[in-house]
Amino acid sequence: VIQQALKRREQGEPVAYIIGSRSFWNLDLAVTPAVLIPRPDTELLVEWGVERIRRADLDRCLDLGTGSGAIALAIKAECPACAVTAVDRSTDALAVAQANGKSCQLQVTWLEGDWFEGLLGQRWPLILSNPPYVRDEDPNLHRGDLPAEPREALAAGPDGLKDLKHLIATAPDFLEAEGYLLLEHGWDQAAAVRALLLTAGFTNIETRRDLAGHERVTGGCLDHG
Ligand code: GLN
Prior knowledge:
Layout: H1 2-10, H2 15-19, E1 21-24, E2 27-30, H3 43-56, E3 60-64, H4 70-78, E4 83-88, H5 91-104, E5 109-112, E6 124-129, H6 162-170, E7 175-184, H7 190-199, E8 202-209, E9 215-222
Parallel strand pairs: 3-4, 3-6, 4-5, 6-7
Antiparallel strand pairs: 1-2, 7-9, 8-9
Helix pairs in contact: 3-4
The protein binds glutamine (GLN).
Glutamine binds near residues 130 and 146.
């Protein structure tokens, strides 16, 4: 078994896929090649979400593009009273997320859909997402663990902003007044994301840095009534 695992590793398969799990926050999550391997950077997004939920005593939130379910489950673990809904368009990813919910004994509503597609008419006080944000031509797509990960969870057009643009443009229709949108993005995309949020009518726009000091998560509040 060890020989086999070493061989797979030599051939470039990520450790997380070989052992089938990765820890994130305080959870042990199953991962398969159907989902992005959770990154420690994303805990910054979870922290910010938890802070919003506690400060405003929110009773629900939405995680878009949940993949393994990492963000949704970490938030549910911290904020048991908050109803968490998580969406992914990949059936295979949702199966992994659902299994993670079971094994962690955390109740999340899992929905299949393309971003906001299945949520028409709903409004949320908090929406979080770690969307794909890597440029199509980024050489990093060919390095490290990335080649083994689902490309649709990583790459987002020539500027890497395709999905971030869609989320920011569409979120206002799905946010309550004073609702927050929190987005993970690439280390060099914060200014672009802030500009997009401003154009879409967001206020209180703020960027937070990851442990490496890179601008990694940007969020804003929607002022509409
Ligand atoms: N942070 C990941 C990476 O660059 C990308 C994750 C994503 O696209 N959401 O490896």
